[in-house]
């Protein structure tokens, strides 16, 4: 997709899945001319604070269970999703092949033909933004989904950009979303990863990771021995740096952010933005309940799908997350193994699979 050279006169609201998105007052950021950009598991919101029309949805195509549930959202027309954003890290054909093996049909191909749109290519980013991305990628840290959405909105020509639900995982309640039923929750990547890592930590005599184990921490905190140890490729500083780089590259952007009080200090590091918290907005009318939530108990994974999901989660764990785990828990071992792994990856057939 070519970089948009024109200014979009509409406003756009990027809704992350942090706790601030569950506050009904956040709907203040959306008006009649506001486009809506949703992320990942947004359809688990308990109430419909931002309406049923979704102009862009950027799901994580690495999460097979997410796509399985999204399939039911679309089939039941619970939201009107206009376009899906496919990241450039994997080709569209790769997604199609993967889900054909998983679903046994061409569901993702049909999605792409009806709703698909590629995210901008990395080479089309402004020089300053690309330099900041390269800087953090060298340290194996990457922006969170809402920050990627912000970068996408800027590249699409939007200059009145509003953000809610980007709370940097700083709250006790990480997401403002309804819990998945246990049998679906067990086939999500985060819980699966935590179970595997806890087995390793138990054997090595370390404290076990809690449900909030993948809360991104600032660099320097990553090696603290706590049950909130980071097992992630994200960091708060990465997000702040890239947001600021985008604002510097597009100085005519007007950014408005609704956040929770615990996150206010983090957002105040970003220059030239308008910050709102719940105390700044008058009470609003209650939002309607999400009719999709009661249907979660009816969504099943058959035995073949369960096996394929587990295989895929192991593939993801072994190809990347084990390296991050070793880096955060055993840094001396990581310094020895990293160059050895790169040598093997770059000179054997293994490189085709990771």
Overview of the molecule:
This protein is of the alpha/beta class and 354 residues long. It is 38% helix and 13% strand. Helix 1 links the parallel strand 3 (53-58) and strand 4. Helix 4 runs antiparallel to helix 8 (236-249), helix 7 packs across helix 10 (303-329) and helix 10 crosses helix 11 (331-347). The longest helix is centred in the last third of the chain and has 27 residues, at 303-329. It is globular, with a radius of gyration of 20 Å.
Tag the structure with descriptive keywords.
11 helices, 354 residues, disordered C terminus, alpha/beta
Low-confidence stretches: 214-231, 349-354
User: Rg to the nearest angstrom?
Assistant: 20 Å
Share in β-strands: 5-15%
Distance between the termini: 25 Å
**Secondary-structure element order, N to C:** EEEHEHHEHHEHHHEHEHH
Largest sheet, strands/sense/barrel = 8 strands, parallel
What is the global morphology? globular
Structural class: alpha/beta
Strand tally is 8
Arithmetic mean pLDDT: 82
Task: Give the proportion of residues in helices.
Answer: 25-40%
Draw up the topology in text:
Blueprint lengths: L7 E8 L18 E6 L13 E6 L5 H12 L4 E7 L5 H12 L3 H9 E3 L8 H11 L7 H11 L2 E7 L17 H4 L3 H15 L32 H14 L4 E5 L5 H4 L6 E3 L26 H27 L1 H17 L7
Parallel strand pairs: 1-2, 1-6, 2-3, 3-4, 4-5, 6-7, 7-8
Q: Outline of this structure?
A:
The protein is α/β, with parallel strands linked by helices and 354 residues long. It has 11 helices and 8 strands. The longest helix is centred in the last third of the chain and has 27 residues, at 303-329.
């Amino acid at each position: 997709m070519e970089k948009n050279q024109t200014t979009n006169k509409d406003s756009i609201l990027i809704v992350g899945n942090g706790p601030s998105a569950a506050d009904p007052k956040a709907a203040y950021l959306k008006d009649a001319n506001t486009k809506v950009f949703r992320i990942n598991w947004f359809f688990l919101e308990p109430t419909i604070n931002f309406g049923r029309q979704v102009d862009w949805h950027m799901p994580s195509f690495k999460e097979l269970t997410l796509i399985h549930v999204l399939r039911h959202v679309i089939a039941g027309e619970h939201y009107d999703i206009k376009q899906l954003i496919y990241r450039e890290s994997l080709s569209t054909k790769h997604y199609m092949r993967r889900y054909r093996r998983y679903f046994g049909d061409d569901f993702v191909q049909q999605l792409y033909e009806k709703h698909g749109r590629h995210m901008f290519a990395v080479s089309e980013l402004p020089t300053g933004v690309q330099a900041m991305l390269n800087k953090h990628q060298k340290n194996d840290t990457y922006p969170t989904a809402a920050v990627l959405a912000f970068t996408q909105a800027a590249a699409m020509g939007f200059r009145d950009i509003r953000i809610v639900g980007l709370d940097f995982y700083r709250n006790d309640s990480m997401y403002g979303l309804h819990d998945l039923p246990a049998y679906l929750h067990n086939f999500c990547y985060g819980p699966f990863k935590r179970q595997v890592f806890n087995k390793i930590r138990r054997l090595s005599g370390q404290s076990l990771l809690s449900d909030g184990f993948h809360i991104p921490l600032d660099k320097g905190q990553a090696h603290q021995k706590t049950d909130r140890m980071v097992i992630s490729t994200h960091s708060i500083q990465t997000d702040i740096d890239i947001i600021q780089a985008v604002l510097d590259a597009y100085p005519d952007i007007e950014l408005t952010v609704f956040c929770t009080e615990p996150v206010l200090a983090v957002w105040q590091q970003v220059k030239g933005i308008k910050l709102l918290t719940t105390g700044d907005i008058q009470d609003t009318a209650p939002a309607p309940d999400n009719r999709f939530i009661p249907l979660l108990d009816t969504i099943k994974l058959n035995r073949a799908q369960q096996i394929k999901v587990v295989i895929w989660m192991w593939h993801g764990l072994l190809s990347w997350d084990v390296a991050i785990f070793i880096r955060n828990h055993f840094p001396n071992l990581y310094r020895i193994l990293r160059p050895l792994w790169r040598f093997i990856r770059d000179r054997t057939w293994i490189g085709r699979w990771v």
